[in-house]
Write a structure and sequence with these properties.
Elements (H helix, E strand, L loop, with lengths): L1 H13 L2 H4 L1 H31 L6 H46 L11 H43 L1 H48 L1 H6 L3 H54 L4 H43 L26 E10 L10 E9 L3 E5 L6 H8 L7 E6 L2 E2 L5 H6 L1 E4 L10 H6 L7 H10 L3 H5 L18 H15 L3 E5 L7 H14 L4 E5 L11 E6 L2 E6 L1 H7 L2 H10 L1
Parallel strand pairs: 3-8, 3-9, 6-7, 7-8
Antiparallel strand pairs: 1-2, 1-4, 4-5, 9-10
Helix pairs in contact: 1-9, 3-4, 3-5, 3-9, 4-5, 4-9, 5-6, 5-9, 6-8, 6-9, 8-9, 13-15, 17-18
Length: about 575
């Protein structure tokens, strides 16, 4: 618990949460103290009422004073609630922004072991716990602590002997509460983990809904989800059982102490040691103290849960990206240099070896060496799993090579600021990504400052203008989540238009025409023929008919370049390319 709270404290200090919202914190503290003072004055007002007597002429003034005190208490409490709730929402908004900002900086290797559903769960359910802690629980805890200390002080003033007995007995209550609180903390972390697993599973299934329905696996997925929900409920049930026991123990022991002390006080009133008004005052302070202890036990449970949630959030906020020194384009450790686009070689792989972190024993690249001249159209061919897509990932610097060197336009890839490096590269993935926005905004994603005319020109070049214009609202038509309103070929042409709009010196095409019909493929090939001359391009192709115009074909197998040359020469060699061509063209 101490470690988790220290990590939270460290983050609060680093992000300057207290100094950033100094005015609000000061106002919250002021309203808290004023509300506590008003509450602590209530027993004094009642003592006045009892000792004055209900038949006294001054009784009207005493009731007016009590009413004014209640109004002041209501105003101060409402003000404290507003300011603390504002702080809770603001701090949680900051946490969500920081988490998302840091997650965006992570390399793809980070997501090989972390499910996106788990990240979303942390940003929603975990931050909600933190919001409850900051906006509500901390406020209640501070108020209860002030009331506890103030009540005890006033009890000491009223009757030092009775207060001393109560304080000693209440201290004995703390030990069992502390032991139970430690168990609640462990159960809270386990419960949150199960909730995150459930969210991750739901996100995975929803993203693959068409596959689930195509295989009629709705009952299977429902069963899996039900099982995960029940496991989360089982963990939550253990947590709330222990928390209920914690609450019951705290209240029972606290009130037991109070009843015992009040019994002693009643005997003192009988003996004439204290007045009835003083005993009434002491009773009200005892009730305030009991309520404060009960509230503290409740907020302690909230703190246990929020501590586990905060630990998980801090892990996300403090996770260092694989390219820690170069994840930001404005990093001072790197010098931004204009690309040397006149370098004779656009891309050079020199004895590059690489294995994915999730599969360290399998070499996706095995001492691979190749070069791509500036302005050349190069095709990458080979069986699935040969390392072609890995080569693209290395060029975008999603991963670092285990050994060897990669150069882009005559400069070592590690010396490029990552943002500048990726700004020079355009990619059309095999599975196009369509965002839940309009066609105009999806294409403009390639260059955010592009005008509408430039977006439309890129769409025409990619032969996407026709079907986009036929949509209900044209370029302003909403394409749906992941582009569900488009066909596979239409998605691919949107992706190609996005890359064309970016206009990069190096273009990566990963089966750019794989989802197109014969007519659309011909149109896109014609579009690429008008775009690619003079631009360096690398094209991954399984359909060899799409690479016949390539200046050079590089054949990769098991992470090694096994052949390279033009189509006719490779056919003559009778190697892997010839076998693949025979299978397709026969």
């Amino acid at each position: 618990m101490a470690t988790k709270l220290s990590s939270l404290t460290q983050w609060l200090r680093e992000y300057r949460v207290l100094s950033r919202y100094k005015t609000q914190w000061c106002l919250a503290a002021l309203f808290l103290l004023l509300a506590a003072a008003a509450t602590l004055a209530v027993p004094l007002a009642f003592r006045d009422l009892v000792d004055t007597g209900l038949t006294s002429d001054a009784i009207d003034l005493k009731f007016i004073n009590l009413l004014l005190l209640a109004i002041a208490l209501a105003l101060m409490t409402a003000s404290r609630f507003y300011v603390m709730s504002w702080l809770g929402e603001r701090v949680v908004a900051d946490i969500r922004q920081r988490v998302f900002e840091n997650v965006l900086r992570q390399s793809p290797a980070y997501f090989e072991t972390l499910q996106t559903g788990e990240v979303l769960s942390r940003m929603t359910s975990d931050t909600t716990l933190v919001q409850t802690l900051v906006g509500s629980s901390i406020s209640i805890a501070l108020r209860s602590l002030v009331m506890l200390l103030g009540g005890m002080t006033m009890m000491l003033v009223t009757s030092a002997w009775l207060a001393g007995v109560m304080i000693v007995l209440l201290l004995l209550v703390v030990l069992p509460l502390w032991a139970l609180g430690r168990r609640v903390r462990k159960m809270s972390r386990a419960s949150q983990d199960k909730v995150a697993d459930t969210s991750a599973m739901a996100g995975e299934v929803l993203n693959a809904m068409t596959t689930v329905q195509a295989f009629v696996r709705e009952p299977h997925e429902q069963k899996r989800f039900n099982s995960a929900v029940e496991m989360a409920f089982f963990e939550a049930k253990k947590r709330i059982t222990m928390r209920s026991l914690l609450t019951a123990t705290a209240i029972m022991m606290a009130f037991g102490v109070i009843v015992f002390v009040l019994w002693i006080g009643a005997r003192q009133v009988t003996a004439g040691t204290i007045s009835l008004g003083e005993l009434t005052q002491f009773v009200l302070y005892a009730v305030l103290i009991a309520g404060s202890i009960g509230a503290l036990s409740e907020t302690w449970g909230d703190l246990q849960r929020a501590a586990g949630a905060t630990e998980r959030l801090v892990e996300l906020m403090q996770a260092e990206p694989a390219l820690a020194s170069s994840a930001r384009g404005n990093d001072r450790t790197e010098t931004s240099t204009t690309a040397n686009l006149s370098a004779p070689e656009a891309v050079v792989f020199n004895d590059v070896t690489f294995a994915y972190p999730s599969r360290p024993d399998f070499l996706a690249m095995n001492h691979l060496t190749l070069s791509v001249p500036r302005g050349a159209r190069v095709a990458l061919v080979g069986p699935s799993g040969a390392g072609k897509s890995t080569l693209f990932a290395m060029l975008l610097r999603f991963y670092q090579p285990t050994a060897g060197q990669i150069e882009i336009f005559g400069r070592d890839i590690t010396q490029w600021p990552v943002s500048e490096l990726r700004g020079m590269v355009g990619i059309v993935p095999q599975e196009p990504v369509i965002f839940a926005s309009s066609a105009m905004e999806n294409i403009r994603y390639g260059r955010l400052d592009a005008t509408d005319a430039e977006v439309i020109a890129a769409a025409k070049t990619a032969h996407a203008h026709g079907f986009i214009s036929a949509l209900p609202q044209g370029y302003d038509s909403f394409l749906g989540e992941r582009g569900v309103r488009l066909s596979g070929g239409q998605k691919q042409r949107i992706s190609i238009a996005r890359a064309i709009l970016k206009n990069p010196p190096l273009l990566l095409l990963d089966e750019a025409t794989s989802a197109l019909d014969a007519e659309s493929e011909r149109e896109v090939q014609l579009a690429l023929d008008s775009v690619l001359p003079g631009r360096t391009s690398l094209t991954i192709a399984h359909r060899l008919a799409t690479v016949l115009r390539a200046d050079r074909i590089i054949v990769i197998e098991d992470g090694i370049v096994v052949e390279q040359g033009k189509h006719e020469a490779l056919i003559t060699q009778g190697g892997l390319y010839a076998r693949l061509a025979k299978l397709q063209f026969a």
